[in-house]
Write a structure and sequence with these properties.
The chain has 226 residues and is an alpha/beta fold. Helices cover 28% and strands 14% of the residues. It contains 7 helices and 7 strands. The protein has a 7-stranded parallel beta sheet, with helices on both faces. β1, α4 and β2 form a beta-alpha-beta unit. α4 runs parallel beside α7.
Length: 226
């Protein structure tokens, strides 16, 4: 098993991040007035402005200070996605995991993934790579996490009425083939998302967002399933 990837620091010039996000202009200009005191403030950002895609609370903060603050607040759930064919959904999954403050994102299979969809959020979200399913399962069991698969199988139960455990890792398959038999077998349960249209399944990144929000509703807002 490899160690989690440490979120990389911000670019030397915040305008680089602005361009990467495809924004005409975001953020704020140079700090006006007396400079604030505190180790978390970034002197370069205070002087030049902060054009990063961060919430107002973290304007002008050093990158490592933001990550440390997020680490103190992260939720108990993890996200995993299988990546055997270079799944293009992974960047979006990482972005959503950052939005819902997942503990970590786990990529099973190929290490390489397209970071464009993450919209720079991978700098603030811990990502861990597992070369094999066995490696991932051993890690999850060692951490005491329930492995919950999200896919459509004959034995899948509805996400909408399922009592999601607080300490868990939600696993999603490669777009197209879905979860591998190895993950299906290792999962405590496999959940399906109720659909009402003509297609059999929804996009893996969309399914991940729905499942993450279900965990948030249950364990942050104390909304019971059903």
């Amino acid at each position: 098993m490899t160690e989690p990837e440490t979120p990389s620091g911000p670019p030397a010039n915040p305008a680089v991040e602005e361009e990467a996000e495809g924004k005409a202009e975001v953020g704020v200009g140079p700090w006006e007035g007396e400079r604030p005191a505190g180790e978390h403030w970034d002197p370069d950002l205070l002087a030049d402005g902060d054009r990063r895609n961060v919430v107002d609370q973290y304007r002008y903060w050093k990158h490592e200070a933001i990550v440390a603050d997020l680490d103190a607040k992260r939720h108990n759930f993890h996200i995993a996605i299988e990546n055997w064919q270079h799944d293009m959904n992974i960047g979006t999954v990482v972005r959503t995991a950052n939005a819902f403050l997942a503990k970590e994102v786990h990529i099973i299979g190929r290490r390489r993934w397209n970071r464009r969809g993450a919209m720079v959020t991978d700098r603030y979200q811990h990502v861990r790579h597992h070369p094999t399913v066995d490696d991932f399962v051993a890690w999850a069991q060692g951490e005491g996490l329930a492995i919950i698969g999200i896919d459509i199988f004959p034995d899948s139960v509805p996400l909408e009425t399922y009592e999601l455990p607080k300490d868990c890792v939600l696993v999603f398959g490669q777009e197209g083939p879905g979860l591998t038999p190895e993950v299906h077998e290792a999962a405590v349960d496999t959940l399906s998302i109720e659909q009402f249209g003509s297609t059999r399944s929804i996009n893996a990144a969309s399914a991940a967002a729905i499942a993450m929000h279900a965990w948030i509703r249950r364990h942050v807002f104390n909304q019971l399933p059903g």
